[in-house]
Each structure stands twice: as C-alpha cells, then as structure tokens.
Amino acid sequence: MEINVLEKNPLKLRLYIKNIPLHILNSVRRVMIAEVPTMAIDSVVFTMNSSVFYDEYIAHRLGLIPLTSEKALEKYKSPEECREAADRGLFTEDCFVKLDLEGKGTGEGLVTLYSGDLKTSDPDVRPVYDKIPIVLLANNQEIRLEAYARLGRGKEHAKWSPVSVATHKYVPLIHIREELCKGEECRKCIEICPKDIFELKNGKLAIKQDKILDCTLCRICEEACPYNAIRINWKENEYILTIESTGALPPKKILLEAIKILENKIDDFIESLKREGVVK
Amino acid sequence: MMFPVRCFTCGAPIGHLWEEFKKRVEVGEDPGKVLDELGIKRYCCRRMFLSHVEISYEILNFPKVS
Ligand code: SF4
Ligand code: SF4
Ligand SMILES: [Zn+2]
C-alpha cells in the first residue's frame, strides 16, 4: 500500500491511496460517517423562554452546534451507555456536559445569543465556533436554559457525525488517441470540460497534469468529441479519500478512530463465531 | 427563520459565517467572491447563503401562541 497526502489542514484531509481494496476503504469511510462518536447537545431543559421561538426550534439549533470532542472520547462513557442514562433521566457527570445559556432582550435593538455565550461545565467540550447565532431576543424577551451534551454516533443522528464530507473517488485515466484527434481545429473537449483539464501544447491536445485529479469522470468530453478520440477510464485499486471534519475532531483522529472501531467490530465477529462454535 | 447552523445537504457548519457574509454583501461586495473568501466551496452550502431570507425579524413582531 502506498499513501500520499494531497491536502492537509485542520479541517480537511485528502489522501491518494494505492493498492487498497475498495470494500475496505468504503468500510472505513462508512464508519467515519456513522460510528465515530462526537459530543453534541441532546437534551435541553428550558427554565424560561419568552422569546418568539419555540423550545424545539432552539433545542434543534443547539444540537447542530459542533462541540470539541477530542478529549471527551476518553473522558466520557460510551454513546450506548449514555443514551440509556438519558432515557432514565439520569444526567450524570460521567456522561453529560452541561452548557448553560442565558440572555435577555434590552430596550435598544435586538440581542443575539451566540454559541460563544454557552457556558460549559467542561472546558474540553465547548462550541468549535463562537459566532453561530442561536436565538434573537427583542425587548424584555428572555431565555434561560440548560443543555446537556453527550457522546453519540452519526447513525443515531447526523449531528454526531464528525464529518461533513467523507468520500472516495476513482483516479481518472484519460486516454487521447493522437492519430484521431484534430487538436487545434476542433478544441471541443477543451471548451466543454467542466474541470478545465485539457489544453493545447504545440498545437496538440494535452492534459494539465496538475489538474487531472479534479476530473469527475463525467465523460462529457467523450461525448463531445466528434472523432471518438478520447477515452475516460479509471485506475484499478487506486482511490482518493477525502475527509472534511465539522471541527469536532481533527481529520486524522477521525480516520484513526474509524479504523479502531472497524477493527473492534471484526474482533467481535470472530469472538461470536468462536462462542457459537462455528470456528474453533 | 434564522440562518441555519448547518448546510441542509452536506452538514457542514456554516452558521458562524452568516453575519460576516451579510455585512459584506450589504456594503456592496459580490456575494460569489465573499463566499469564495469565506471558504464555502460546494454549491449546496453556497445556496444556503444566497437563498436565505431572514424572516425572523418579522416573526419577532408577533406574540407566540402555545
Ligand atoms: S470526464 Fe469530465 S471532467 Fe474528466 S476530462 Fe472529461 S469532461 Fe473533463
Ligand atoms: S474533442 Fe476530440 S478531436 Fe476535438 S480536440 Fe478533443 S479529443 Fe481532439
Ligand atoms: Zn453543503
């Protein structure tokens, strides 16, 4: 296996992976979306809400705010245990982080409460972004609430998914048959390609090597070519994996956690096979 | 209602960028350029900004019935 990093920043990771079976890569990708736990607000207790917004609307907005979760993964109990605790009405400290929000509208203009106004009981779990507007308050309208965040998984609700994008795509193989291509006279594929991948070099059609990975395999160029001179294909066993984080966890952590979870699932499977006597 | 916290389609957090977007577009900057600079790349997220109508200001004038 060979892996190259194409792009890496605090929110995004793009890897070029060679010699990996697609089903393995896809399993990892799906675990990233649905199984890697993060923190998110799940229960909200309103002690006061005289704003024009309904409790449910505000609770929904609160739930969607990404919370920093890297340390929380070790500190708090698993999503399954905490979900059960919440069902029984036990907002215990080993599961829940409490976030308080308070605000009152004043005479001059509107007051906006932001995610940054949430007061957290654990500094390791706080909103990733401070400028997300939660609610608007006009004169004398008041909000007082306690929100409880816990670990959860994307399969339960998308707010817990650590990624906004987790994709793998094929690596394009663009083949130009030079004997058929009319190059300068035609230019059809150059004009039509939505990703601007072709250019003319010395009167001949060429592929911009730095842009080839942008190709979406849409095959518009193939269709547009009057002389059948172009063929789009993809490489076997080579993929580009893109992870874009919501900010709750760094992309690297998401990938590693996903692999760990997948490994545990397979271990569990083997264990059950042994327990049931299917294998020795 | 208020500007959504996340993009409806891809789930990327966008709420924190709304006020800057609004401020800059109101003083006459090109919305497309502002979105580029804010790092909003996908068209699902871009339409969230471009098509948003802030009706919460009007709702604030009505009493809540519950
Ligand atoms: S398949 Fe689509 S993106 Fe790729 S080169 Fe052809 S037109 Fe461009
Ligand atoms: S459309 Fe076909 S013939 Fe025309 S430049 Fe492209 S590859 Fe060559
Ligand atoms: Zn989007």
Notes on the structure:
- The complex is a heterodimer of chains A (280) and B (66).
- By secondary structure, chain A is of the alpha+beta class.
- Chain A has a domain at 38-160: DNA-directed RNA polymerase, insert domain (RNA Polymerase Alpha Subunit, Chain A, domain 2).
- Chain A is built from seven helices and twelve strands.
- Chain A has helices spanning 22-34, 55-63, 72-75, 79-87, 188-192, 220-224, 251-275, and strands at 2-9, 12-18, 38-49, 97-104, 111-114, 119-120, 133-137, 142-152, 163-176, 198-201, 204-207, 230-245.
- By secondary structure, chain B is mostly helical.
- At the A-B interface, β7 of A face α4 of B.
- The complex binds iron/sulfur cluster (SF4) (2 copies) and zinc ion.
CATH level 1 class label of the domain at 15-59 in chain B: Mainly Alpha
Assembly form of the protein: heterodimer
Strand content of chain A: 25-35%
User: On the 0-100 scale, what is the average pLDDT of chain B?
Assistant: 93
Instruction: Output the radius of gyration of chain A.
Output: 26 Å
Say how many strands of chain B there are.
0
- Give me the secondary-structure category of chain A: alpha+beta
- Number of helical regions of chain A: 7
Shape of chain A: flat
Instruction: Give, in order, the helices and strands of chain B.
Output: HHHH
CATH superfamily of the domain at 38-160 in chain A: DNA-directed RNA polymerase, insert domain
Helix-strand makeup class of chain B = mainly alpha
Describe the largest sheet of chain A.
4 strands, antiparallel
* Annotation, overall tally of beta strands of chain A: 12
User: Spans of chain A with pLDDT under 50 lasting ≥5 residues?
Assistant: none
Bound molecules: iron/sulfur cluster, zinc ion
